[in-house]
Amino acid sequence: MLAEFRSGGDASQGYFLSSVSSAHVFDETGFEMWLRPLLLLLLSIAMLPAAHAFERPFPAQAKRGKMTPASFPDIVIGGRLRQLSPGARIWNEDNLLQMPASLRGSGLAVNYTEDANGHIDRVWILTADEASEPITKQTQTQTQTNSKAP
Questions:
Q1: Could you give the CA distance from residue 93 to residue 28 in angstroms, rounded to a whole number?
Q2: Whole-angstrom Cα distance, residue 51 to residue 1?
Q3: pTM over cut 0.85
Q4: DSSP helix, strand, coil percent of the chain (3-state; round to 5)
Q5: Which residues contact 60 (CB under 8 A, 6 or more apart)?
Q6: pLDDT tens for each residue of 70-110
Q7: β-strands 80-91, 74-77: how paired?
Q8: Partners of residue 68 on adjacent β-strands
Q9: Which residues of the chain, if any, have pLDDT below 70?
Q10: CB distance 113 to 77 below 8 Å
Q11: Which of 33, 56, 84, 133 is least surrounded by CB atoms within 10 angstroms?
Protein backbone atom coordinates (compact mmCIF):
# COMPACT_ATOMS: atom_id res chain seq x y z
CA MET A 1 0.00 0.00 0.00
CA LEU A 2 2.78 2.43 0.86
CA ALA A 3 4.58 1.47 -2.35
CA GLU A 4 1.48 2.36 -4.34
CA PHE A 5 1.35 5.76 -2.66
CA ARG A 6 5.00 6.42 -3.48
CA SER A 7 4.61 5.22 -7.05
CA GLY A 8 1.93 7.66 -7.97
CA GLY A 9 -1.10 7.30 -5.74
CA ASP A 10 -2.87 10.60 -5.33
CA ALA A 11 -2.77 11.78 -1.71
CA SER A 12 -5.23 14.62 -2.41
CA GLN A 13 -7.94 12.05 -3.12
CA GLY A 14 -7.34 10.37 0.24
CA TYR A 15 -5.96 7.16 -1.27
CA PHE A 16 -3.19 6.78 1.31
CA LEU A 17 -5.39 7.53 4.30
CA SER A 18 -8.11 5.13 3.24
CA SER A 19 -5.72 2.28 2.43
CA VAL A 20 -3.80 2.25 5.74
CA SER A 21 -5.87 1.69 8.81
CA SER A 22 -4.56 2.50 12.26
CA ALA A 23 -5.58 -0.96 13.47
CA HIS A 24 -2.81 -2.56 11.41
CA VAL A 25 -0.14 -0.11 12.49
CA PHE A 26 -0.74 -0.29 16.25
CA ASP A 27 -2.09 -3.80 16.60
CA GLU A 28 -0.45 -5.71 19.46
CA THR A 29 -1.02 -9.32 20.27
CA GLY A 30 -1.85 -10.32 23.81
CA PHE A 31 1.74 -11.44 24.38
CA GLU A 32 3.23 -8.11 23.30
CA MET A 33 0.74 -6.17 25.39
CA TRP A 34 1.89 -7.61 28.73
CA LEU A 35 5.52 -8.23 27.78
CA ARG A 36 6.69 -4.60 28.16
CA PRO A 37 5.20 -4.06 31.65
CA LEU A 38 6.54 -7.43 32.75
CA LEU A 39 10.05 -6.60 31.56
CA LEU A 40 9.93 -3.21 33.32
CA LEU A 41 8.79 -4.88 36.53
CA LEU A 42 11.56 -7.47 36.36
CA LEU A 43 14.15 -4.80 35.67
CA SER A 44 13.01 -2.69 38.62
CA ILE A 45 13.08 -5.73 40.92
CA ALA A 46 16.60 -6.53 39.75
CA MET A 47 17.72 -3.00 40.62
CA LEU A 48 16.40 -3.09 44.22
CA PRO A 49 19.38 -4.86 45.84
CA ALA A 50 21.79 -2.37 44.27
CA ALA A 51 19.82 0.55 45.66
CA HIS A 52 19.77 -0.84 49.20
CA ALA A 53 23.45 -1.79 49.20
CA PHE A 54 24.61 1.82 48.84
CA GLU A 55 26.81 3.11 51.65
CA ARG A 56 26.90 6.86 51.91
CA PRO A 57 30.37 8.38 51.87
CA PHE A 58 31.12 10.31 55.06
CA PRO A 59 34.37 12.29 55.12
CA ALA A 60 37.05 11.52 57.70
CA GLN A 61 36.43 14.85 59.51
CA ALA A 62 32.69 14.16 59.97
CA LYS A 63 31.26 14.49 63.47
CA ARG A 64 28.14 12.95 65.01
CA GLY A 65 25.40 14.84 66.80
CA LYS A 66 21.70 15.31 67.44
CA MET A 67 20.17 18.08 65.34
CA THR A 68 17.04 20.15 65.86
CA PRO A 69 16.07 22.63 63.13
CA ALA A 70 15.79 26.27 64.15
CA SER A 71 15.08 29.50 62.31
CA PHE A 72 17.23 29.51 59.15
CA PRO A 73 20.27 29.73 59.02
CA ASP A 74 20.46 28.46 62.61
CA ILE A 75 20.32 24.85 63.71
CA VAL A 76 20.85 23.28 67.11
CA ILE A 77 23.44 20.49 67.24
CA GLY A 78 24.39 18.91 70.54
CA GLY A 79 22.39 21.52 72.47
CA ARG A 80 24.40 24.41 70.95
CA LEU A 81 22.97 26.95 68.54
CA ARG A 82 25.04 26.69 65.36
CA GLN A 83 24.85 28.36 61.98
CA LEU A 84 24.71 26.82 58.52
CA SER A 85 27.33 28.11 56.11
CA PRO A 86 26.24 29.78 52.88
CA GLY A 87 25.61 26.98 50.41
CA ALA A 88 25.28 24.32 53.12
CA ARG A 89 23.91 20.99 51.92
CA ILE A 90 21.63 18.70 53.89
CA TRP A 91 21.00 15.12 52.77
CA ASN A 92 18.01 13.23 54.18
CA GLU A 93 17.78 9.51 54.99
CA ASP A 94 17.24 8.71 51.30
CA ASN A 95 20.40 10.64 50.35
CA LEU A 96 18.36 13.35 48.64
CA LEU A 97 19.08 17.04 49.14
CA GLN A 98 16.66 18.67 51.53
CA MET A 99 16.09 22.38 51.94
CA PRO A 100 16.77 23.72 55.45
CA ALA A 101 13.31 25.31 55.69
CA SER A 102 11.64 21.92 55.12
CA LEU A 103 13.36 20.16 58.04
CA ARG A 104 10.98 18.79 60.66
CA GLY A 105 11.53 16.96 63.91
CA SER A 106 13.92 17.24 66.80
CA GLY A 107 16.83 15.20 68.04
CA LEU A 108 17.64 13.90 64.55
CA ALA A 109 20.80 11.79 64.47
CA VAL A 110 23.20 13.42 62.00
CA ASN A 111 26.75 13.38 60.74
CA TYR A 112 28.04 16.84 59.91
CA THR A 113 31.15 18.73 58.89
CA GLU A 114 32.32 22.25 59.68
CA ASP A 115 34.02 24.77 57.43
CA ALA A 116 37.08 26.89 58.40
CA ASN A 117 34.81 29.46 60.11
CA GLY A 118 33.13 26.85 62.31
CA HIS A 119 29.86 26.92 60.38
CA ILE A 120 28.07 23.70 59.47
CA ASP A 121 28.54 23.07 55.74
CA ARG A 122 27.35 19.48 55.23
CA VAL A 123 24.71 17.51 57.16
CA TRP A 124 23.60 13.92 56.64
CA ILE A 125 20.41 12.88 58.45
CA LEU A 126 21.07 9.27 59.42
CA THR A 127 18.89 6.21 59.08
CA ALA A 128 18.39 4.02 62.15
CA ASP A 129 21.02 1.57 60.86
CA GLU A 130 23.57 4.32 60.23
CA ALA A 131 22.91 5.89 63.63
CA SER A 132 23.54 2.55 65.35
CA GLU A 133 27.04 2.28 63.80
CA PRO A 134 29.88 4.16 65.44
CA ILE A 135 31.05 7.14 63.39
CA THR A 136 34.63 5.87 63.50
CA LYS A 137 33.57 2.82 61.48
CA GLN A 138 31.73 4.98 58.92
CA THR A 139 34.64 7.38 58.41
CA GLN A 140 37.28 4.60 58.40
CA THR A 141 35.39 2.82 55.63
CA GLN A 142 35.53 6.00 53.56
CA THR A 143 39.24 6.52 54.31
CA GLN A 144 40.03 2.92 53.29
CA THR A 145 38.05 3.32 50.07
CA ASN A 146 39.98 6.49 49.21
CA SER A 147 43.36 4.89 49.94
CA LYS A 148 42.61 1.97 47.59
CA ALA A 149 41.91 4.28 44.67
CA PRO A 150 44.80 4.54 42.19
A1: 43
A2: 50
A3: no
A4: 40, 25, 35
A5: 139, 142, 143
A6: 988 899 999 999 999 999 999 999 999 999 888 888 899 99
A7: antiparallel
A8: 76
A9: 1-31, 48-54, 141-150
A10: no
A11: 33
